[in-house]
Here is the input.
Amino acid sequence: MDEILKELGDTIRSALPDHVIETEIAHGELMVTVEAQSIVKVLGFLRDDANCQFKILADVCGVDYPEREKRFEIVYNLLSLEQNQRIRVKASVGEEESIPSATGVYSCANWWEREAWDLYGIFFSEHPDLRRILTDYGFEGHPLRKDFPLTGFVELRYDEDQKRVVYEPVKLTQEFRTFDFMSPWEGTEIVLPGDEKAEGQEGGKSS
Here is the structure.
């Protein structure tokens, strides 16, 4: 199987030398890294070439690597029923950069690209309807970014006086507390109600 995938990788690289950065086999699957601006050309080739025929786009997802210069990685998972093979295509973009939409090649990319935009803030140029799909109207930020705060920026609740849902800055319901994470049965320094009885019994036994 690895030899077949290697031949497929060589075919793709030779056909698209200016667009493919590298190919590798990992976890029994061929991975192709491409230039972001070449994604439409590469996907079109993989769909239409007789040796590929990856006519099904199974998934599009984003990955966040804050330490990288090009922070985001967009991953396209393709399936060829004719060849009985899967392939993974990856491209990297910076936080202020964009990547062309794949909706012209695979119409099903529409909602997946909207999801990547909503959760990561990855901008897909020429997308026909790039707007949030999972978060609420008025949501601030992109919640799957590694630097997004766990509490979010705003919270919403139903206001009985105004008879509507209102947005407010996040307020913690209690002050920050520290925990020693010690079990009461394994030496905690906190004296719990009833502990004095056990100490009295131990004292009686020792006497």
In short: Residues 159 and 165 are 6 Å apart (CA to CA).
